[in-house]
Amino acid sequence: MKLIRNLFFLILVFVCFYTVACSDSKSSDQDAPLFAIYLLLDESVSAFDLRQDSIEDISISNSIVITEEDIISYGWSEHEILLSENASSRIKALNIEEKEALPFIVVAGNERIYIGSFWSPYSSYAPPFPTISSWLPRDSRLWIHSGTDSAYGDDVRNDNRVYQVLEKAGILIQ
To answer: 49: part of which helix (H) or strand (E)?
Structure first.
């Protein structure tokens, strides 16, 4: 009887250690944002340079510009984002308006969805990829504009994976 009790105790300890070890290995996925906009690791690269590259081969920085935690609401029909004051201040601190463009990658649920760029509203050129104006109005709203490529095919902003994570985060507005 004592042998059975000791064996049971040993199995219980093993199961506990195994459970803890497995849960730690998954914590990085659980901590990953549902929705994120990342800048590139190499800021000297333009979004035009990236159009021919596989999105998976592009090196992104570890710092995230925007996550679902920064978004108060996301209006799907116009791709209008209302940001928290903290996120708005963080974007303004990037001094994007001093650059002609600053590429980003939109990620939904750990999947890279599309390449876009913060873009000067004073530019006379209409880029083919999605853009976010490089200045923010006072109320911290921004829009992800479609780019000219969407006139010839699918609008990459309307990817269902993005829709699903925004809905899951409870910030999606039709």
So the answer is: helix 47-50
